[in-house]
From TrEMBL:
Keywords: Hydrolase, Membrane, Protease, Repeat, Signal, Thiol protease, Transmembrane, Transmembrane helix. The chain crosses the membrane at residues 25-48. Belongs to the peptidase C40 family. Residues 44-88, 95-139, 189-233, 252-295, 322-365 form the LysM domain. GO terms for biological process: proteolysis. This is NLP/P60 protein. GO terms for molecular function: cysteine-type peptidase activity. It holds the Pfam family NLPC_P60. Gene3D superfamilies: endopeptidase domain like (from Nostoc punctiforme), LysM domain. It comes from the Bacteria.
Amino acid sequence: MDLSGEYYLLRLTKNGFILYKFHMYAFRILLILLLLQVSAFANQIYIIKKGDSLIKISHKFNIKSYLIKQANPKVDWLKIKPNEKIIIPINGNKVFYTVEKGDSLIKIAKKLGYTYSELKKANPGVDWLKIKPKDKIALPDKTITAYVKAPLQTEEQILHNEEQKQIQKVQAKEKLTKTQTPRKVASEQFYTIKPGDSLIKIAKKLNYTYGQLKKANPNIDWLKIRPGQRIRLPSKHMQVKRTPNPGEVGDGYYIVARGDTLRSIANRFGLALERLRELNPKLGNIIKPGDLVVIPKDLTEKIILSRKQNLFIPPKYLVYSQVYKVKSGDTLWKIAKKFNTSVGIIRTINDITGRNIRIGQVLFVPSLNLKESEKLKLRYSILNEERHALIKYAERFIGAPYKFGGNSLRHGIDCSGFVQKIYSKFNVKLPRTAEEQYRIAGVPISVKRLQPGDLLFFHTMNYARVTHVAIYIGKGRFIHAAGRRSGVKVSRFDRYYWKRFVGAKRILGVDTRYAYIRGGSG
């Protein structure tokens, strides 16, 4: 400063020193602006230390606690931990945020709990598309007025209020559980979790609602239940009283569904119609959906058990079956020998495709005390089911292309290859050519005794006696790989085929070298 009241400022640059000349008043204004700028951007990051609290931090920096809260809106001050970072506003009224790498208007708003418009209003000169790290932006002061209006509380008061809230919550829960839990603890019932159980399955199995099970077991995470774990069952009076659904099988009863007749129900459960009438003397010839039909209790118990084991076995099989639990050292062959039956029947009843069985597995096997007529009925019903299943499987490939010598149901197959593929799905091994199938497989039968699944053989070409084979599907029709023009199709036993018919063979239910060999045993 010289005597004339003017100030000089010396600035160092790359090219040397530059001398600035200021009037006294201009210099004072410049100095005030510099000081304001320094104080405005004087925020800093503070790392929480052990024993810190909002009150202690505010005393340490001599800043009111509500300003620190306003600078850190997402911080729960009752749960702060050491090494957490918080913003400390140094200037008196405004709070600033230092832009970090990757920040944008949206990210900053979400991070600090503001709306986009609030940040824009507080920073009218900021181009939000060009912000860069270390830039300073002003935070809205909406929370300052809110905190100023409310009387400031000490840390002890805040903790006391929180403790009172927790105590009130616990007391409310205790009152709720006292009204829900029965007085007599001895009357409580428990259920042990089994493999595959879930909240939905247990509720359906035991006839409870999801809410009842959750209320009775408030501390259980239903997504992490494990076998062997015990859960408390609600009181009996809390069980849902529901009407059985049509078609439902219960403890000694069946609920009539739409389209049911006494004869169809008797056939479904493998009972004689006279036997069903004896069990239901009050039922007339006309029944309607929702009517209750009495079924032998031992049969319904087997049905319910089979469904619990995820074995949806037709009831007519279970009439002649008994329950057997697999023991150590058991094989399918040993079990079949023990119950005087075949491995194929055990596999069919229990829907077993491989050879492996496990200890404790529940199997349904033909009863030892069956009469010969009952054994024949069981065998016939199983074979009948297999015949229909085989026909349904074969009909899925209608339209598949024909290829002489081909083995692919997708890219091309001939008549004997088609028959071989279909039967292999049911674990029955057949020769490859039509001539060999006619000569070796199965037993001959007459046309009058044809059943679905039997093989029909024809002489359509002169190079051999048997040159074509088809699978009989009933009502004078058969399915076969006919030729290049039509591929796999259904044909009728018309005059053309009658002239070329050689004979028929039965495969299912016949125990020969190339028929009904299931998985190499039985």
